[in-house]
C-alpha cells in the first residue's frame, strides 16, 4: 500500500514526503519537475517523472504501487501570474486535477487529499474566516482551486471516494531538520523573498502596496509553518483511512501579520538590515486574510508545533543559508 504524492518534488510536497516516510509509509511521488527538483525527493520514495493528467501513467502507477490515497499538491501557485495567464491556471490546476480525480475513481483509490487555498475566500468580510464563509476568489488562481474543490465534492458524491480539502493560508519556513525547504527558483512568496534579501541572495526586496486599509497599510496574512501543514495532511490521511467523512478545513494559525511585520521579524532574526523598497499594489492581492482553524484542530486533533513567526522565519533563513552553501 502506498501514498501517491503529486508535486512531491516541490516545496510543500517534499515536506509531506518526509513526513510520510518518517511515519513508515510507502510513498510514490508524481512530479513533472517543471518547478520541483529530483534531488528534493528522498531516495526512500519512488519518483515517477510525469504529468498528473497522464492517465495511462497514473493508473498504471496506482495499480503497481497499490495506492490507497492521493495527496495532490501539483499545481501553479502564483496569484499575479494567474491574473496574466488564467487559462494556464485553469489547465494546470483545474483540468489536470479533473483527470487525476478520474484516474483515482477508475483505480479504486478511495482517499483524496487536495491542496486548496485561502485565496478561495478573496477578501472575506469576517476575519478570522471559517470554512462556511462564502467563497469569493479574487484571482484566477483562487478560482482554479475552487473549481477543483467543487469537482471533488461532486465526484465524491457520485463515486466511492472520500476527500479532505485543506485550504492553506501562507505556507512558509522549512523542515526543522533542514532535509528540505523552499528551493523554487524566482520565488515570489514574501518570507522566501525576505530571506533571500536577508542572506544576500538579492540586493533588496519590494513591498507591494502600502495604502491598504490595514493598520500599517500593508496586506495581512496568516503564515503557517510548512511542517505543521504536512502534519495536518498526515492526520487528515489517518482520519480518512479510519472512515472519516469528506471535509474541507482551513490550515492556518489564526494570527495575522502585515508585510511590514514579517520583514521586521526577518531583520530581527538575521540581525542586520537590508534594503526594502515600496512599490504599487500587486494585482490579485487580497487585503487581509486570517484563518479560523478550529475545524482542523477538532477533526484531526491537529496541534501546531511551530506557530511562532520568528521560528518560521529562522527556519526559512537557515534553509537559504543551506542553498547558498550548495550553490543552488
Ligand atoms: N509581498 C510583498 N513583496 C514580496 C512578496 C510578497 O510585498 O516580494 C506581499 C504580497 O503583496 C502580499 C503578501 O506579501 O500582500 C503575501 O504574498 P505572498 O506572495 O507571500 O502570498 P499570497 O498571499 O499572495 O499567496
Automatic annotation (TrEMBL):
InterPro entries: Epimerase_deHydtase (IPR001509), NAD(P)-bd_dom_sf (IPR036291), UDP_G4E (IPR005886)
One GO term (biological process): galactose catabolic process via UDP-galactose, Leloir pathway
Reported cofactor(s): NAD(+)
Domain NAD-dependent epimerase/dehydratase stretches: 3-252
Name under which the protein is recorded: UDP-glucose 4-epimerase
GO MF entries: UDP-glucose 4-epimerase activity
Reactions it catalyzes: UDP-alpha-D-glucose = UDP-alpha-D-galactose
Keywords, ordered alphabetically: Carbohydrate metabolism, Isomerase, NAD
Keyword NAD attached: yes
Subunit-level organization: Homodimer.
PANTHER family: UDP-ARABINOSE 4-EPIMERASE 1, UDP-GLUCOSE 4-EPIMERASE
Gene: galE
NCBIfam families named among the record's database cross-references: galE
Source species of the chain: Mesorhizobium zhangyense
Amino acid at each position: 500500500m502506498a501514498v501517491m504524492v503529486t508535486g512531491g518534488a516541490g516545496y510543500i510536497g517534499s515536506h509531506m514526503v518526509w513526513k510520510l516516510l518518517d511515519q513508515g509509509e510507502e510513498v510514490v511521488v508524481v512530479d513533472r519537475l517543471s518547478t520541483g527538483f529530483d534531488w528534493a525527493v528522498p531516495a526512500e520514495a519512488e519518483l515517477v517523472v510525469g504529468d498528473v493528467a497522464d492517465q495511462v501513467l497514473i493508473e498504471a502507477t496506482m495499480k503497481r504501487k497499490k495506492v490507497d490515497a492521493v495527496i495532490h499538491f501539483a499545481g501553479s501557485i502564483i496569484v499575479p501570474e494567474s491574473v496574466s495567464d488564467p487559462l494556464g491556471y485553469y489547465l494546470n490546476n483545474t483540468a489536470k486535477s479533473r483527470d487525476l480525480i478520474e484516474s483515482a475513481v477508475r483505480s479504486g483509490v478511495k482517499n483524496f487529499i487536495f491542496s486548496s487555498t485561502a485565496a478561495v475566500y478573496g477578501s472575506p468580510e469576517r476575519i478570522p474566516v471559517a470554512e462556511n464563509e462564502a467563497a469569493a476568489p479574487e484571482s484566477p488562481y483562487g478560482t482554479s482551486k475552487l473549481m477543483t474543490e467543487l469537482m471533488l465534492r461532486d465526484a465524491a458524491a457520485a463515486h466511492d471516494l472520500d476527500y479532505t480539502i485543506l485550504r492553506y493560508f501562507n505556507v512558509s519556513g522549512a523542515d526543522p531538520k533542514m532535509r528540505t525547504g523552499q528551493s523554487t527558483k524566482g520565488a515570489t512568496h514574501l518570507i522566501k523573498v525576505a530571506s533571500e534579501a536577508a542572506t544576500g541572495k538579492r540586493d533588496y526586496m519590494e513591498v507591494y502596496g502600502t495604502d491598504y486599509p490595514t493598520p500599517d497599510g500593508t496586506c495581512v496574512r496568516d503564515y503557517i509553518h510548512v511542517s505543521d501543514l504536512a502534519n495536518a495532511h498526515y492526520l487528515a490521511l489517518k482520519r480518512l483511512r479510519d472512515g472519516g467523512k469528506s471535509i474541507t478545513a482551513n490550515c492556518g494559525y489564526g494570527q495575522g501579520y502585515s508585510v511590514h511585520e514579517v520583514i521586521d521579524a526577518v531583520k530581527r532574526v538575521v540581525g542586520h538590515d537590508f534594503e526594502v523598497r515600496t512599490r504599487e499594489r500587486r494585482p490579485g492581492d487580497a487585503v487581509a486574510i486570517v484563518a479560523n482553524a478550529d475545524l482542523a484542530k477538532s477533526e484531526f486533533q491537529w496541534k501546531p508545533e511551530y506557530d511562532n513567526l520568528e521560528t518560521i522565519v529562522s527556519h526559512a533563513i537557515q534553509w537559504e543559508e543551506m542553498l547558498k552553501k550548495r550553490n543552488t
